[in-house]
């Protein structure tokens, strides 16, 4: 009988997760609040739930489709709230999001990016205009190799994109401008 009383007192402070059977304290946020669960707790802890969802996401395309559909419906029905949340999230996680984007899209670290900015004195590598509220520097990279070439202002980056990074077309454009200058 003493064992039964002791196990009840332990179980009031802790809970065994139904997925991986780990025992965790109830009070520290390991379990989500749930009206359907026993004692107002969900059946499984947040870590196990996250792992289970990740496994399902990777293995089951139907699950992925359902979750995306639910998220999309929620975002549409709570548009204003969703926008506010997204804005706050981006502000609070700006550096982490920037680091992830640099590594994922360009294959460089944040430290390499900042050293590139310092080397270029926060100015465009072509026109030498400094970054300001109206001039934004973007990362220029070779679309064939993916190698980062430098930082350019939007106008210079678009100009290179319009000629398809072709040196021959750029020489032709220079020759055209020189010929046109002589006529006026």
Can you walk me through this structure?
It contains eight helices and six strands. It is α+β, with helices and mostly antiparallel strands and 184 residues long. It folds into two domains: 76 residues, no CATH class; 90 residues, 3-Layer(aba) Sandwich (His-Me finger endonuclease fold), CATH 3.40.1800.10. The chain has a two-stranded antiparallel sheet. The protein has a two-stranded antiparallel sheet with strand order 3-4. A hairpin with a 7-residue loop joins strand 3 and strand 4.
Notable characteristics:
single chain; two-stranded antiparallel sheet; 8 helices; alpha+beta; 184 residues; 58% helix; disordered N terminus; two-stranded antiparallel ribbon; His-Me finger endonuclease fold
State the separation between the terminal residues, measured CA to CA: 105 Å
Number of strands: 6
The structure class reads alpha+beta
Q: What is the helix fraction of residues, given as a range? A: 55-70%
CATH topology of the largest domain: His-Me finger endonuclease fold
Beta-strand residue fraction: 5-15%
N-to-C series of helices and strands: HEEEEHHHHHEEHH
Q: What is the CATH superfamily label of the largest domain? A: His-Me finger endonucleases
CATH class of the largest domain: Alpha Beta
Averaged pLDDT, please?
82
